[in-house]
Amino acid sequence: MHDYINFLLKKSDINKNEFYSYNPKKKKKSKSFEYKKILEPTVSNYIIFDFETTGLSPENDRIIEIGALKIIDNKIVDSFNELIDPKRPIPMYISSKINITNEMVFGKRKIEEVLPEFLKFIENLPLIAHNAKFDMGFLLNNLERIGLNCDNPAIDTLYLSRKYLNLEKNNLQYITNHFGIKHDDAHRAFADVLALFEVYKIIKAYYSGSHI
Predict the structure, then answer these.
(1) pTM
(2) Whether residue 211 has pLDDT greater than 90
């Protein structure tokens, strides 16, 4: 349980052997989804997105919140922010970390209603997430479940942070604290994408050398 709670400090420094579900009744092995990767912070038109979920496994767990920003020419032009009814209880230890309760999601739209709208929102733009393997796994798994797909390439700011920022830690909360980025309501999807937008700009500056 201790490892799981640490993981929720933003799904950042996860090791391969930490990627599992804590639901003992469901031991399905999560299917591995391949997606195109962009390995350098070169894009100026993109989507930053984040999911909050009931657990770690795309196969066994469910999305309960989507937050996203659409960036064109390095400026925010649109946003997507929605709670989702997972059709199952949210574990108490999840609720305590992300501040999303069962009452908050009860009666909200289901993922099969929300994801088609999210696909329209992201268009064919590159997707940016912190630990993209996690969020892309949930996205692609859920899309497959409802008969849809996504070919958008993805950028992982966790990978880029490790490569360019040279920090002691690379979870989102540590990075925002280090650079003095406002990050109110951490662990909520929309708050996290707002913070990640600022982090990506910093990574781009380090990549280009303009931070000096």
Answers:
(1) 0.86
(2) no
